[in-house]
Amino acid sequence: MRIPLAKPVFDEEMKSAAVEALQNEKFVMGESVFKFEEEFAQFCGVKHAVSTSSGTFALQLALQALGVNCKDKVVTTPFSFIATANSIYCAGSTPVFADVNPKNCNIDPQYAKQVLSNEVKALMPVHLYGYPADLDSIMDLAEDGKRVVVEDCCQAHGAKYGNRKVGSFGSVGCFSFYSAKNMTVGGDGGMAVTNNEEVANHIAKLRDCGRISHYEHDLIGVTARLNSVNAAIGRVQLRKLEDWNNKRRAAARLYNKLLSDLDEVELPPSETAELSPVYHLYAIKSKRRDTLKAYLEGKGIQCGIHYPIPIHLQPIYRQLYGYKEGDFPNSEGVSKKVLSLPMYPELEPSQIEQVSQGIHEFCSQTLT
Ligand SMILES: Cc1ncc(COP(=O)(O)O)c(C=O)c1O
90: CA distance to ligand 1 center in Å? Predict the structure, then answer.
């Protein structure tokens, strides 16, 4: 593709950091891991960060450390990457879905309120595409500590809600460093951030086989540590993240300007004085999404669909819980319309113009 959907960065500085870590540190739990955790906590404005081998494990272990168990339910969105709900299932709990607001594709607190019960011990909002969920309302639903909130920030590194970064609102905020995210560690990786020291220590123990010392274990944990080499790459990426996020915001502003005259295309919600998204994805909506995607790809412009099948309609979720079409109409509606356009920090204005031109051509030349 002439213009890819995403373009992860791996430069000389990251290469040197990786080689240095491999040569001078323990492969697992080396010095870089702890430095990365400290720096990431500082970046998020929280006291503690615990790295994991993936975002999914960060979410799962956060729920377990918060005491969410098999008798409990966790309210989340059906319109996310499947790992959000999987983490709840793998923590031994039951996901309960609440439909999204079709404008921003994030969980709608109105629907979340309707599914609350005594069994609901946690809420897991997702800041989808890097756009912050309605945290004020979600935190209200948690009712002063009766329920915990675990923020799924896997697509929202550095996004701000008011003057605070996402991840610092809930009991725990969880991040993914998978290659296509706003920052990566050169492979899979994750991070759980929290202000609660006890919870941080519990997650740290769970990710390391439940160890209290080298040979002693007082919890059933898993092997979900971040490798030192990945942490070393992550540290370099983290230093560049703010600049990269600003470049993504600038790209989004240009897309907004160039596409705003098209009736057929609905644009993602913009930044406001209160909300500062990080545009992990720039997802437009079109009723003719599939033909538009094919048209753009014919011109060498790669597009993506995040996500064509809402979680409740995935075969495994239908089988486990009996979900069917029509259960979450807003999520089903947006899953048929969303189209992610190329978005990455190095995306040139001229490339954004080419994408926009392709969309304009499609809208004017083809029948609606
Ligand atoms: C919203 C969301 N939640 C959870 C995850 C899981 O993260 P990971 O792939 O690092 O396990 C992802 C990553 O793709 C994601 O986008």
Answer: 14
Ligand 1 atom 7: residue of nearest CA: 55
**Beta strand residue intervals within the chain, DSSP E:** 48-52, 73-76, 94-97, 120-124, 148-152, 160-161, 164-165, 172-176, 190-194, 211-213, 216-217, 275-276, 282-285, 338-341
Q: Which domains does the chain have, with CATH numbers?
A: 12-235 (3.40.640.10), 241-365 (3.90.1150.10)
Q: Which residues line ligand 1 (CB under 6 A)?
A: 54-56, 80-81, 83-84, 126, 152, 154-155, 176, 178, 188, 190
Q: What is the DSSP string of 190-213?
A: EEEEES-HHHHHHHHHHTBTTEEE
Phi, psi at 151, each rounded to 5°: -80, 130
Predicted TM-score (pTM) of the model is 0.98
Question: How far apart (Å, rounded) are the C-alpha atoms in residues 140 and 132?
Answer: 16
pLDDT digits (tens, 9 = 90+) for 210-245: 999 999 999 999 999 999 999 999 999 999 999 999
Residues in the chain with pLDDT values less than 50: none
- What is the pLDDT at residue 145? 67
